[in-house]
Amino acid sequence: MNKPPKVIVDADAIIAQANPYDMHHKTAGTISEALIKMNAQVIYPSTAIVESNAFIQRPLNSSASAYGTAVVFTNPEVQVAEVNQQTLKTALKYFSPTTSKKNTLFDCIVAAVADEQKADAIFSFDNFYRKKGFKLASEIVK
């Protein structure tokens, strides 16, 4: 019997699930349902929660949705990865002065958490992770 996959979630996947107008909303829901069926261990870096929450509150202009999303992550059944100094050091493997402005330290922290957790995939729509050698969740749910 195969053990369930371990998946780290990026902010774009959280936003896609929370925002019905996001271009990835339907796909994010499908991937999320597949991960549940696979009994995947889903881990949310604390920074991805904060990053997605700020986006929901500011650009999407929805403090109520931002609050509701934050409340979801206080559920003890939701696994949140703390980001500490070692995680930041690991993130620097993926971050440099020449890193694209689209690939922020937030993304590098997600990659670092995936490293630290020995994750099977990252739930994101960002090809940055593929370029860094990670599988995306969409690849393991097919």
Describe this structure in words.
With 142 residues, this protein is an alpha/beta fold. The protein has a single domain, classed as Rossmann fold (3-Layer(aba) Sandwich). It has a 4-stranded parallel beta sheet. The longest helix is centred in the first third of the chain and has 13 residues. The chain is globular and about 35 Å long. The relative contact order is 0.20. The mean pLDDT is 93.
Question: How would you briefly describe this protein structure?
Answer:
With 142 residues, this protein is of the alpha/beta class. It has helices at residues 11-18, 25-37, 46-57, 63-72, 85-91, 105-117, 128-131, 137-140; strands at 6-9, 41-45, 79-81, 121-123. A four-stranded parallel beta sheet has the order 3-2-1-4.
Structural descriptors:
single chain, 142 residues, alpha/beta, Rossmann fold, four-stranded parallel β-sheet, 50% helix, 11% strand, globular
Architecture blueprint of SSEs:
Layout lengths: L5 E4 L1 H8 L6 H13 L3 E5 H12 L5 H10 L6 E3 L3 H7 L13 H13 L3 E3 L4 H4 L5 H4 L2
Parallel strand pairs: 1-2, 1-4, 2-3
Strands ordered across the widest β-sheet: 3-2-1-4
CATH class categorisation? Alpha Beta
Given the structure, what is the number of helices? 8
> Which structural class best describes the helix and strand composition?
alpha/beta
Q: What fraction of residues sit in β-strands?
A: 5-15%
